[in-house]
């Protein structure tokens, strides 16, 4: 997610949010903010120098691996860190999306003429353009290894990234020693765990409060109708979700392009129906959104008849992606849920969508954490 910050440190930005009432002061979060600042300060001290017209390779900087239960503020702190990094050679992406990109690049290389050579190294071929781009900080959200293909690749991949001066900053729900737990041939994965622990400082976030759950406690997350009064209801709900922060425009990456986000703050994104369902977006884009935010507000959802068949299909894909991930949805609808789908081309699929929308406003759904959902294929409309 692209963002910028007026603050020069994560701790300063965090304290400002507390002072504004957007956050409740949490000692564990404050200590974690200091850990992010350690990385930030080390990166600035290791800034590449210009020698004879060229930039030398920056000194390696030990990164950060922040783990903790869901809803404890890991993503919020990563937001503050990424915004505070003052140089453009940074990237933030969900772990599974990053690994999917790597696998696709390896497959493309193997099909190329260079990939058929006896001494071809697909991992080197994938890492080289990353290093040539000058990337200094790679921020990976939700580091979680469950796939043997990723498990067997990670050590060689990150050996080259670390050797090239890339600093890893990641969040996870588990400690490094529990990554790929009980996985097939896990003994082959253990060298990566050792490398990860050597190249990052492992920090726990033992906060007792699930802040994500508090955002929606006792709230009516759907509004029905049109007009200024509905907009006012959504404004109030948005401020509840963000702790009083209005948010600012931003972008998220998706399969090599950027998706504009009209407003984003505190792990939440605010879209109009037209922003997502009347543009050429597909499953991968919606999954990227679901992986980037724990809460999504979608406004001005109209009744979808035959004149909106494509928009209805995208809406179905969007809700599927948010539901599979466990993202919290706040939305305004022009008509009641059972009247949304009036297009016979999508009538069958819409039955499931309405069922999911109904569940997504329940206390049970709103009280659950995010799920690990990875798409199997790309689908565009």
UniProtKB/TrEMBL annotation:
<keyword id="KW-0547">Nucleotide-binding</keyword>
<dbReference type="GO" id="GO:0005737">
    <property type="term" value="C:cytoplasm"/>
</dbReference>
<dbReference type="GO" id="GO:0005524">
    <property type="term" value="F:ATP binding"/>
</dbReference>
<keyword id="KW-0067">ATP-binding</keyword>
<dbReference type="InterPro" id="IPR027417">
    <property type="entry name" value="P-loop_NTPase"/>
</dbReference>
<dbReference type="InterPro" id="IPR005654">
    <property type="entry name" value="ATPase_AFG1-like"/>
</dbReference>
<dbReference type="GO" id="GO:0016887">
    <property type="term" value="F:ATP hydrolysis activity"/>
</dbReference>
<dbReference type="Pfam" id="PF03969">
    <property type="entry name" value="AFG1_ATPase"/>
</dbReference>
<protein>
    <submittedName>
        <fullName>AFG1-like ATPase</fullName>
    </submittedName>
</protein>
